[in-house]
Amino acid sequence: MHAGSRWTKRLCSTRGVCKPVFRNPRDVSGQITHPINPNKTKSTMPFYHTLGAIIPKRHTQYRKPNGDLYNEQVFGTIGFDGMSSILYHVHPPTMVTSIGDPVDVTPEVAIENNITARMLNGFAVEPKDDYLESRVPILTNSDVTLHLAAPRKSLRDYFYKNSDADELIFVHEGSGTLRTMFGNIVFEAGDYLLIPRGVIYQIDFDSEQNRHFITESFVPIYTPKRYRNWFGQLLEHSPYCERDFKLPSELETHDELGEFAMQIKKQGMIHRLVYASHPFDVVGWDGYNFPYGFSIHNFEPITGRVHQPPPVHQTFETSAFVVCSFCPRMYDYHPLAIPAPYNHSNIDSDEVLYYVDGDFMSRKHVERGYVSLHPAGIPHGPHPGTYEGSIGKKETKELAVMVDTFKPLKVTRQALDLDDGTYYQSWLK
Predict the structure, then answer these.
(1) Can you tell me the distance from the alpha carbon of 71 to that of 269, in angstroms, rounded to the nearest whole number?
(2) Residue 409: which of 105, 106, 114 has the closest Cα?
(3) Are 96-107+124-281+291-296 and 300-425 in the same CATH fold?
(4) Please, which residues have CB within 8 angstroms of residue 296's CB and are 6 or more apart in sequence?
(5) pLDDT band at 339, cuts 50/70/90?
(6) Averaged pLDDT, 266-274
(7) What's the confidence (pLDDT) of residue 34?
(8) Least enclosed by CB within 10 Å: which of 134, 174, 252, 389?
(9) 123 three-class SS
(10) Is 292 in contact with 285 (CB distance < 8 Å)?
(11) Fold adopted by 96-107+124-281+291-296
């Protein structure tokens, strides 16, 4: 982070009370201490953050009040070439006392090669008490699995870590606190929670009324490259900025030994481990790789004189899919504009829309929590009457999340249970 010609660093208490101090950006050799390669766009977050108490120099002795060493952990991605953070633990984060039998949670594919447009009733997913058991996979390929979930109870009986995938949790209903090794994030309905792979977390819910749309990505999830300059800062034309992110704040530091149940997802299996120390024993950390939240209500729509293509709604990107937010906005303002989208062919991607709220102007008979799938290979567009009916309209109150994948999606058995079976015929007049 820049402050004039200096970089800002924070020294904090273990409870997250931070005071900024300033360091010269150049070391004794005169080189910039945090070089940025403009040719590399590997990032989870485009800026530096710190919480708790850290020392001035990484990889050096950091001692407890009793003289013992804190345990340093580099939490990195893409080998040592991607974004990373450095955490300081009270106890070694490596102490495992037992490993149980794994449980297979691989999605059960019902249709490998799908060409049928489908509409799924997401709110038909039955709520379950357990956080992981509530997840219902509906669509999957080698890059991503999409889940619906309705967890009732807070995740407190065990800790959870996804070792294979970033998790992007869209909170449709409910509120609470995401508790992680990096600190806590308070969330509410409309928030995206981006949890990078390997992050240990629990979730406290404020009530039993929770609905989630979850994108489990086996490739890293980033902010779109075109929104950022070569330093990683979000540009003025971006539909959101760094102020909009919900960053880890309160840092829990538990100096506890005992038995702590951990469930780790790896290669389609849930592995049950017992750790000898509390996973939330971090006294401080800094870096670029950490969980964060972002509210869909803080996405500022990009509009134009004529209908804009879906990339203007893009919120996140990966090498394998994009995530877009369709938010309330003014319609196109050309005097002859047609606000409804034109018919378009999905030649290179499957399109998934999760309907959050409002009347989606190009669709008929769509309810909150519905999920539409428009597969690659066939064109789709506005339902009969909506194209003409949109003329003269000034604004829309629609709210939806879209995931466009670059590989075809396979349909799970659970998805077929939610499918109305007739959506592909809904364009017939």
Answers:
(1) 29
(2) 114
(3) yes
(4) 170, 190, 191, 192, 315, 325, 327, 356, 399, 401
(5) confident
(6) 97
(7) 34
(8) 389
(9) helix
(10) no
(11) Jelly Rolls (2.60.120)
The 8 Å CB, 24+ separation contacts for 22-29 are 23/56
Q: 300-425 has which fold?
A: Jelly Rolls (2.60.120)
> Cα separations (Å) of 417 from 111, 141, 223?
13, 19, 34
The pLDDT, as a whole number, for residue 341 is: 85
Helix, strand, or coil (residue 243)? helix
Q: How far apart are CA 102 and CA 422, in angstroms?
A: 39
Tokens representing 233 are: 């800062």
Q: Where are the alpha helices (DSSP H) in 266-357?
A: none
Q: Which pLDDT score is estimated for 429?
A: 67
Contacts of 214 (CB under 8 A, 6+ apart): 135, 146, 147, 148, 149, 167, 168, 169, 170
Task: Go through the chain and tell me how many residues it has.
Answer: 429
Per the DSSP assignment, residues forming a β-bridge with 371 are: 120, 354
Region 155-164 average pLDDT: 97
Structural domain boundaries in the chain: 2-89, 96-107+124-281+291-296, 300-425
Query: 95 in helix, strand or coil?
Result: coil
The pair of three-digit structure tokens given for residue 286, joined into one six-digit string: 């800094």
Asked whether the predicted pLDDT for residue 63 surpasses 90, the reply is yes
Residues 54 and 73: beta-carbon distance below 8 Å: no
- Spatial separation of the C-alpha atoms in residues 213 and 150, rounded to whole Å: 9
Residues whose CB is less than 8 angstroms from the CB of residue 322 and which lie 6 or more positions away in sequence, other chains included: 224, 311, 314, 316, 403, 404
